[in-house]
Amino acid sequence: MDANEHGHVIEVTGLRRVYGGGFEAVRGIGFTVRRGEIFALLGTNGAGKTSTVELLEGLAPPTAGRIRVLGHDPYTERAAVRPRTGVMLQEGGFPSELTVAETARMWAGCVSGARPVAEVLDLVGLGAKTGTRVKQLSGGQRRRLDLAMALLGSPEVLFLDEPTTGLDAEGRRDTWELVRALRDSGTTVLLTTHYLEEAENLADRLAIMHEGRIAATGTPDEVTAAQPSRISFELPEGYFAGDLPPLAGLGVSGHDIDGRTVRLRTRELQRTATGLLMWAASAEVELRRLDVRPASLEEAFLGIARRAAEEAGGGSAADLSTKECVR
């Protein structure tokens, strides 16, 4: 059976992974991925993402729990799963002296029903590099080659581990378009990424891991909805914070004042912004440097990491920087 009655091609239940020294990298997680869906697995460094993906790819057995990929155990039934999946590792490790075309032909010989090499290389933008040796490729071009090899077998399920690392902005956008096209054609994609913008743009659903557990899951909008939106502006000349309408009545859940700059937090962005602008129009004043923005996935990610660190006694919110969480 390829999928259950709900159309899930990946099912994870009670998954645990404990290493030899007793370290528990994955602590009883569960999630599902539907056919033709892009699912992003995010997390702080050491959250358990790589350990989880290795189990999904069938590279090791779980310590406990259950995994099904296309209806099969990816470890004990590897022969039934592997020909129907594609895997893009963080680094392919191809022989440096081979050309791009030679590498692709070698890889195609290991794949059941491989697509034409030229077609796949064109697909990832390496059609003009067929005679170039792997060692002469840039970091971004090597990532394109890694992706090409993962696509040679026309996989039904595609695992992408940091797919756009090393790519420039144009290459990243091209890869996003290719991944969307694969999804639209019915391919199920599970990706890990440290680029939160990438997850926000690509993922139909996502899960955020922290210390071996899933801290949040849902669509990007559902995950970010748990964080307040923000409005900031500069008080008009001659006005003070006390001259503003009652903030609670505008749906404001918190605020900060720094000199003449006011920063509001709200879970009712439209209501707050509308009330604020109506007050400014009535008072015939201009709200300079007005900035209205909904919560981002990065804010949700950092909020989860900070809360988890504080609950574990690992430090205050100020101890976690964006770089530490998303690098």
From TrEMBL:
SUPFAM superfamilies: P-loop containing nucleoside triphosphate hydrolases. InterPro entries: AAA+_ATPase, ABC_transporter-like_ATP-bd, ABC_transporter-like_CS, ABC_transporter_ATP-binding, P-loop_NTPase. Residues 10-236 form the ABC transporter domain. This is ABC-2 type transport system ATP-binding protein. It comes from Streptomyces griseoviridis. It is a peripheral membrane protein. Pfam families: ABC_tran. One of its GO terms (molecular function) is ATP binding. It is found in: Cell membrane. Keywords: Antibiotic resistance, ATP-binding, Nucleotide-binding, Transport. CDD domains: ABC_DR_subfamily_A. Its main location: membrane.
